[in-house]
Design goal:
6-stranded antiparallel sheet; 4-stranded antiparallel sheet; alpha+beta; 17 strands
């Protein structure tokens, strides 16, 4: 490792990089390295790199569309970055394509929707540790409807919130996550044409209960969602997510949500 003393220089200098690192009182000098960009894009030695990058790009895109199906509940994650775990699930789906060549394997989530079932959006303070009872729910793919029956909850019995927040409520969301297939002419992975290249969660709908006193619990209730978007084929997955929010009461009627206090999880998904 070469070091530099006496010159106040940092950054690139020709084919050299000059920088500082913690614990070293001199500047570090390294020769720039790595493969040439043209070799990475077109060289035969990097063909496997291009295959891997192409498939990983498709994974991140498909996972992004999955996250859009519950974008209204993402704030309940408590700061947990669940992007990596969802990417891993989508990558697993991609590997199920045993017909396409490596680098062009499709992501047909609609064949494997159960990989998403029960996925928690939190690392600690999980939804299932707060609501200690089974929720009955249904997804009807032909009508694109969802129904969640929330049972009566009693604090200390089947409702165990971690903090003494005054109020709570439930919220569900549902949206469509498209399959992604490789287009050999355009050399990229694309969703169905009817879906469009960018949805941004605009097709996601939500429903919520009233606010309930957290010290008491809540009566049984039912939440329902019906998507009005009509797909042209079966290349999509319905994703149903539930969350619990906590709130503080200001005055007699103003409720302000308590940030980072809730929890959420994917209840289930329905594929082709």
């Amino acid at each position: 490792m070469a070091t530099l003393k006496g010159l106040d220089i940092t950054g690139p200098l020709g084919n050299l990089s000059i920088y500082e690192i913690r614990g070293v009182d001199k500047k570090i000098v390294r020769q720039k390295g790595g493969p040439d960009r043209k070799d990475v894009l077109h060289g035969e030695n990097f063909s496997n790199t291009r295959r891997h990058h192409r498939e990983f790009t498709a994974v991140t895109l498909a996972a992004q569309h999955v996250r859009w199906t519950f974008h209204t509940l993402r704030d309940l994650s408590g700061g947990f970055n669940f992007t990596g775990p969802i990417n891993a699930l989508i990558r697993l789906v991609q590997k199920q394509d045993g017909l396409s060549e490596w680098g062009t394997r499709n992501i047909v989530l609609s064949r494997y929707p159960d990989v998403l079932r029960g996925f928690p959006l939190n690392k600690v303070n999980l939804f299932d540790t707060i609501v200690r009872t089974t929720l009955e729910w249904s997804l009807d793919r032909p009508t694109r409807t969802a129904r969640v029956a929330i049972p009566a909850l009693m604090r200390g019995v089947n409702f165990l919130p971690q903090d003494d927040h005054a109020l709570f409520r439930f919220e569900i969301s549902m949206g469509m996550a498209p399959d992604f297939t490789y287009d050999h002419d355009r050399k990229e992975f694309l969703p169905p044409k009817w879906y469009g290249s960018l949805n941004n969660g605009t097709g996601t709908l939500k429903a919520e209960t009233s606010w309930y006193p957290a010290k008491q619990g809540c009566p049984s209730s039912t939440l329902e969602i019906a998507l009005d978007r009509i797909p042209e084929d079966e290349a999509y997955t319905l994703v149903l997510t539930i969350g619990i929010r906590f709130g503080a009461l200001y005055g007699d009627s103003i409720v302000k949500e308590v940030k980072y206090a809730g929890a959420a999880k994917i209840l289930g998904a329905a594929g082709a």
